[in-house]
Each structure stands twice: as C-alpha cells, then as structure tokens.
C-alpha cells in the first residue's frame, strides 16, 4: 500500500489565544487534507501546540500561573476552535507530551554521540520574541524599528548544532529539489540565506527552565525550536514518514527550510517533500499584534458560519502573498459569492426543477450552441479546478469556478427558462437548461467540499443525494452522469449578511473576560539606585522648528532650545504629531544621551513621551511657565 499523504501545520505557541493568522494556517492544511482524501488518498494530518520556551514562560509569569497551566488553558481554546471548525487532524500533539519529550532527548543524544552536537560558550544578542540569537545586522534592524527592548545580551555555555557542516548539502538539496520550498520567490530567499554562510546553531539554554532538559546535563534545556520541529517526527506514525507537505507562515520558513532539513540529514532521515510558506493576514499595512490592539479573533467571524470563514480564507488569500484583512471585505466577499453567486444560482435552479419538472431532473435530448458551450466549459473547469487545487492554489481554483458560475447566471438570463416553461414546445430546450445547471451545481458541490464541508453537503443533498459528498472521489465522477433524483425541498445555502448592522457590532473593541484593564504596558523595570537615575540629565526644552524626515512617516527632525544650547533631535513621533503642531511646545529632553544617527541625521537628545504599547506617544509637557533649561528632577 502506498504511503499516506502526510501533512502538517506549525505547532502554535501557547502564549496567546488563536487569532485569524493561526486559524488560516490550519484551515489551509485542513482544506488540502480533505482535498487529498477526495482524490482517494489516505491522509495523515498533524497539528498541535508549541509549549516550551521563554515566551511561554514569561506569559505565564505575567499571569501568575505556571507555564503548564497556561498551556492547558490555551490548548483548550485551540482544540475547541478546531472542533468548531471541523478540522480533520488525526493527532493534536503537545510538546509537553511524554512521547515527544522522549523523542527529543533521544535524538539530541544521538546527535551528540555522532558529533553533530557539541558544547561551547556563546556570547551575543538574543531576541526574546523570536526565541533566537540575532546577528549584528538583525539587531540593527530591530533597533531601527524601535524594538531594541526585545534584545537581551546573553553569554552562556551552550550546546551547538553543527549547522555549518550542512551548508553544501542544503544547497545541493535546493538545487536538486526545486519543489522543496514553495512558492518560488520564497525559495530564493532561503537559498540566498544559506549561500550567505551558515553558523553553528545554539540549541540549548541555561537561562530558562521551562523546556526539555538536555539528557545528562540537566541545567541546560533544549532550545525551543529544536524541540518544536521534532514534533513532526514524534507525531508521525511509522508508515507515514516523510511529510509530503508542511505548511508554515513566511516568518518561520527559515526554521523549516534550513534548520529542519539539516537536523534530519544529521539524523540520517528522509526529508519532507515540500515546505509551503504562506503570507500574512495584515490589518491595513500593519502586522496583527496584541500590542497594537488590532488582532482579529476567529470567534468574531464564526458567527457567519465555519464554511464562510474557510471560504473567505481560501478565496481571498493567494498562498504565498500577504493580504489585508477587513471586515467589510470579508462580508462583501461572502455576500457576493455565497449569498448571491452560488446561493442564488442553487436556489433558482432547484426551485425551477421543482416547479417545472416536479423535482425530477431531466436528461437533455437536444442541445443548442449555447447549451453546448456551457456543457463544454464545465468539462474544462472541472479538471482545471483540480489541477490548481493539486498545486495548493485554492485561490486560483475558486476563481475559475466562480467565473464559471457567473457565466451560468448570464446563461439563465439569455435562455429565459421562465418563458420556455410557458410553452410545451420548448420542453427539450428547457430540459437542456435545467440539466446543465444541475450538473454544474453537482460538480460545484463536489469541488468545494474540501473548502466548505457543510455547505457542500447541504447542496449535495439539495441535489437529491443521500450520500456524503466528502466520501465521493473526484476521479471517476461523471460530470454528465444522470441525476440522482428526485430533489427535495431546497435549503438556502447562505444567509445574506446585513453589513451595516454587523459592522457596528464587529468593530466594538475586544474585551476578553479575563483581561486586565486594557492597558498594554511592560512590567515595572528592575530597581535602580537613585544615583543611577540622577545620572540622566532631563531638561525642559522648547521646540523651535519641526519637519518630517524625507522617506519616513515616523521620524520628525526638530530644533529644540534647551536653555543652554539648541539641539537637533530626531523623534519617532511622526505618526502621532504633525510638525506644525509641535512648534513652540514645551517638552522634556534627555539632554545627556549619546548622540546617534537616524536616517543619516545626527540626533542629540530624546524627548520624553508616555504611552502604552497600543497607543500613540503623548509628549510630556512641562507647565506653560517653565523655562527651557530647567532641570527636571
Ligand atoms: N511555535 C512556532 C512554530 C513552530 S513549528 C515547529 C510559531 N508559532 S506561532 O503561534 O507564532 O505561529 C504559528 C503560525 O501562525 C505561523 O505559521 C505563522 O506564520 C502563523 N501566523 C501568525 N500570524 C499570522 C498572520 N497574521 N497571518 C497568517 N499567518 C500568521 O511560530
């Protein structure tokens, strides 16, 4: 028997509840899994959660609970959501599962024995949010983005994975297997990264305790990415290896297309066939993030139905590219394609078959040119859809199908079946029209079943079937086969959304029941002695001039009078303030801050501002009668 098609999603961090980004990844995998089942293949589908590491440890500490308690809570969120969304995974793996822990330690030890893992000292900058050491260039990028606070300096004894030894083999893999990373443009990024040279990878930590201990050296815990990637091995039954398709977001492609195959090469195992990297759902142009307060949760969208959300994801996102999310766009898409498009076509067709043919679907005896054209188009659309879907391009597949459904609307308008029905002499023509519409809908139900399982089943039953559409396979399906009739009462496929009404509710801000006040601020920083604080020289200043820094929407260049001298200060306040409203303002300046260059301009000092992570910066203003040069203490 051939090997089951093995498909995986990334495993999700348990520091937060799922948002639509995570949901999208899993829907994509589930749609592909269902599609392969309907191709007659055995499918093994794995998803789960990534529970170790500093991120989770910190999130739990902030809540005053243990990491495991946090994980259990978030896992419940995930499993309930996946159930509501009819995901068809076989196992939900948790990295805290006993068999996983064993697996990770076993492999770690094997690689130590083999010499691919060795111990040494590491010193460098570490990004807490990425759970990874960063290079100098990456550190500079983060600093420029105002994210320097995410970096900490670490010096530790650590175990290294001999990644550098795998550079050539990785490049050979990319050369020989152009299908290894999809889409192509992402593959090129990966190749360039590896061509740039690989350093050995630090894969243990002594600075954290929440993780799987290094066997035999328990003060080290195994690096969360080494631990996490191996879930695909732990969760794989003996007959399924290697993975056929691993879905990941673009942000974690490097881990999957560089580190992961290198680990497997070291372990002497077969490599996955394809890593498919999708893009991101954005809010406008921005990343979705809790600190920006712009996160969209699937629960909010599921009130329109599971199928609606699944369809929207597949229809609107071209795999590989980013896509802006908007509630309006979401509702427009559903109204246009499901309430109007398919819903309307199905209800018109089924009610005509009821009305004109007593629920019995006719077999066509003659077809004119127009009927023939519609029938021929269906013969082309069906395999084209399957081909696109086979290439994991559901966006393209659905596009082809919906274009055809629109043509059918035009066909009805031209054929005017309601007029044909008035004269029995037109019976053969009416038979042809009804039969073609019926066949098109039947094919549609089958094709969209992986994307919209419930809606497809409703349509399938509406067309007279008592079987499960998901258990029907694509091959051998006769597009022009006779109807399975008679058809019953037809149910509406999709309720039109009242956009105005829903908008006002959807846009209400998120207030989770367990939320602390919506203030999004870091914990109080570590204690400093008064002496340390007084080293900072704070002065009242007055802004004399302000202008935007060209090519930056964030930076404003200012001339500031601080009493004793005038300073050039560049501040990242351009999204919150217009230059004109800054002139003449009194501000508080950090006067003895070392000068630094921002976009080529030397900035000498900094303005104090208050904000939480989610809101704009509010410049701190001394009272109106304070004088530039006053010391703030
Ligand atoms: N735990 C790691 C993965 C380890 S796999 C061995 C991780 N977890 S995550 O929870 O942060 O992200 C999981 C997936 O969600 C990633 O594929 C990521 O790309 C995806 N998304 C997170 N936000 C997203 C969007 N806004 N849009 C689309 N997907 C995004 O990374």
Explain the overall architecture:
By secondary structure, the protein is α/β, with parallel strands linked by helices. The protein folds into three domains: 5-278, Rossmann fold, CATH 3.40.50; 300-508, Isoleucyl-tRNA Synthetase, Domain 1, CATH 1.10.730.10; 530-619, Beta Barrel (OB fold (Dihydrolipoamide Acetyltransferase, E2P)). The chain has 21 helices and 25 strands. A six-stranded parallel β-sheet has the order 3-2-1-12-13-7, with helices on both faces. Helix 17 packs antiparallel against helix 18.
Could you give a quick summary of the protein structure above?
The protein is an alpha/beta fold. It has three domains: 5-278, 3-Layer(aba) Sandwich (Rossmann fold), CATH 3.40.50; 300-508, Isoleucyl-tRNA Synthetase, Domain 1, CATH 1.10.730.10; 530-619, Nucleic acid-binding proteins (OB fold (Dihydrolipoamide Acetyltransferase, E2P)). A hairpin with a 2-residue loop joins strand 20 and strand 21 (601-603).
């Amino acid at each position: 028997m051939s090997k089951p098609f093995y498909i995986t999603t990334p495993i999700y961090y348990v520091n937060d509840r799922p948002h639509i980004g995570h949901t999208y990844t899993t829907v994509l995998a589930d749609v592909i899994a269902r599609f392969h089942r309907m191709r007659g293949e055995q499918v093994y589908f794995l998803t789960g959660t990534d529970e170790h590491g500093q991120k989770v440890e910190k999130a739990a500490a902030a809540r005053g609970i243990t990491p495991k308690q946090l994980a259990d809570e978030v896992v419940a969120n995930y499993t309930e959501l996946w159930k509501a969304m009819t995901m068809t995974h076989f196992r939900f793996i948790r990295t805290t599962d006993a068999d996983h822990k064993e697996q990770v330690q076993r492999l770690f030890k094997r690689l130590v024995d083999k010499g691919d893992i060795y111990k040494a000292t590491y010193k460098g900058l570490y990004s807490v949010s990425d759970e990874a050491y960063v290079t100098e260039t990456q550190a500079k990028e983060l600093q420029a983005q105002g994210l320097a606070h995410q970096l900490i300096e670490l010096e530790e004894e650590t175990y290294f994975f001999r990644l550098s030894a795998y550079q050539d083999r990785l490049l050979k893999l990319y050369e020989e297997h152009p299908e290894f990373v999809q889409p192509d443009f992402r593959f090129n990024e990966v190749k360039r990264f590896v061509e740039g040279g690989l350093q050995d990878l630090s894969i243990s930590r002594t600075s954290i305790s929440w993780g799987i201990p290094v066997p035999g050296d328990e003060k080290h815990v195994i690096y969360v990415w080494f631990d996490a990637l191996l879930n695909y091995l732990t969760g794989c039954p003996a007959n399924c290896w290697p993975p056929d398709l691993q879905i990941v977001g673009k942000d974690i492609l490097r881990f999957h297309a560089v580190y992961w195959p290198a680990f497997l090469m070291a372990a002497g195992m077969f490599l996955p066939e394809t890593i498919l990297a999708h893009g991101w759902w954005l809010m406008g142009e921005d990343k979705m993030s809790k600190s920006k307060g712009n996160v969209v949760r699937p629960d909010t969208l599921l009130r329109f139905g599971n199928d609606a959300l699944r369809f929207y994801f597949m229809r609107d996102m071209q795999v590989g590219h980013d896509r802006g999310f908007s509630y309006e766009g979401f509702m427009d898409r559903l109204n246009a394609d499901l309430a109007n498009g398919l819903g309307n076509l199905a209800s018109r067709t089924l009610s005509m078959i009821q009305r004109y043919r007593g629920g019995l679907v006719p077999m066509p005896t003659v077809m004119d040119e127009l009927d023939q054209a519609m029938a021929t188009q269906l013969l082309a659309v069906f395999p084209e859809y399957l081909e696109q879907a086979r290439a994991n391009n559901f966006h393209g597949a659905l596009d082809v199908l919906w274009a055809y459904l629109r043509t059918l609307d035009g066909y009805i308008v031209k054929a005017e079946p309601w007029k044909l029905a008035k004269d029995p002499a037109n019976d053969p023509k009416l038979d042809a029209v009804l039969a073609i519409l019926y066949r098109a809908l039947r094919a549609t139900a089958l094709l969209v079943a992986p994307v919209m399982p419930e809606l497809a089943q409703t349509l399938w039953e509406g067309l007279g079937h008592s079987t499960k559409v998901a258990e029907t396979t694509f091959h051998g399906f006769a597009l022009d086969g006779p109807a399975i009739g008679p058809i019953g009462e037809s149910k509406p496929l999709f309720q039109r959304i009242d956009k105005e009404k829903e908008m006002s509710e959807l846009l209400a801000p998120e207030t989770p029941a367990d939320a602390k006040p919506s203030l999004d601020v870091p914990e109080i920083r570590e204690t400093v002695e008064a002496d340390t604080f007084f080293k900072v020289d704070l002065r009242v200043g007055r802004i004399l001039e302000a202008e935007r820094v060209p090519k930056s929407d964030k930076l404003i260049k200012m001339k500031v009078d601080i009493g004793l001298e005038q300073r050039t200060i560049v501040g990242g306040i351009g999204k919150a303030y217009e230059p004109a409203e800054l002139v003449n303002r009194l501000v508080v300046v950090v006067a003895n801050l070392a000068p630094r260059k921002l976009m080529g301009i030397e900035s000498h000092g900094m303005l104090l501002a208050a904000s939480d992570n989610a809101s704009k910066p509010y410049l701190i203003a001394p009272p109106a009668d304070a004088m530039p040069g006053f010391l703030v203490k």
